[in-house]
Design goal:
single chain; about 110 residues; mainly beta; six-stranded mixed beta sheet; two-stranded antiparallel sheet; 8 strands; about 45% strand
Length: about 110
């Protein structure tokens, strides 16, 4: 469960640029892929999470409502590996890992 977000701090994040990096792992922990996006935070709430209007994708992204997932970015240029696009001076970097479950384990609620 995510910590309860202090929504009074939401205004400090609206309009800030985020570089989002997601690594995908198989059930053994071997990286199978990586995606990178960037965009601007448009909303921060417990109900919707951290909503990012992506600049390099037609969709939007909603992260869990956990502000600790946003790390301040160092000034400079960041090149996206897959596309070669350059993101200049993002305010934050968010890094996530998505790992596939072990196919031999049943979910808790099925035990």
């Amino acid at each position: 469960m995510w910590p309860h977000l202090d929504e009074s701090k939401a205004g400090e994040y609206i309009g800030r640029k985020v570089l989002l990096c997601v690594s995908y792992l198989d059930h053994m922990g071997v990286q199978t892929g990586q995606m990178q996006w960037f965009g601007v935070i448009t909303e921060v709430s417990n109900a919707k999470g951290i909503v990012i209007a992506l600049e390099n994708d037609a969709n939007y992204c909603a992260l869990p409502p956990d502000l600790s997932s946003l790390r301040p970015a160092k000034p400079g240029e960041y090149r996206l590996r897959a596309t070669g696009e350059v993101v200049t001076d993002p305010d934050f970097i968010a890094t996530w890992v998505c790992q596939e479950p072990d196919p031999n384990e049943r979910p808790q609620d099925e035990r």
